User: Fold this.
Amino acid sequence: MATYQKILVAVDLSNESEVVLNQARLIADEEAEIHVVYVQEPMDNVYVGIVPQSAAFSSLGDLESQLGDELKQKLLKLGAEFGFSDDCLHILHGSPATEIHRFAKEHDIQLVVIGTHGQKGLQLLLGSTANAVLHGACCDVLSVRISADH
Ligand code: AMP
Assistant:
């Protein structure tokens, strides 16, 4: 079987990102192109329908852009620890599964590597990011089991 040459690693920037990145590194060829992707979800998605549209939403925009800067720094730090060049590190905006699918298609990604927690009960019904990515992916998906102590 040919090895994967174009890999997308989805990270949520928590401690578990290192587990997912390590696994991607283990299976990737030396020459493989690895893209590390974090998707920043819009904050107003969370509050629309709960809080009426008001001035609070315009300051939410500032907060979101500040948060974006901090997330970018975090991604750059993580990428540097793993020896990735900055142009392989991507912050996208929107819903994680949709953006990961879009990026995978646009960049001819052959494998998406993503963490998973082995959901049970209600969590299983509600689904996870890994489930959402798996359904509708245009390429192979590797889900890396994250143990409870991460
Ligand atoms: P979750 O299902 O949200 O617990 O996340 C499990 C895995 O999905 C993480 O280990 C990441 O690989 C990926 N993931 C979750 N949220 C994001 C995000 N915002 N951007 C990119 N990947 C994510």
The beta strands are 6-10, 33-40, 89-93, 111-116, 140-145. The mean pLDDT is 88. The radius of gyration is 16 Å.
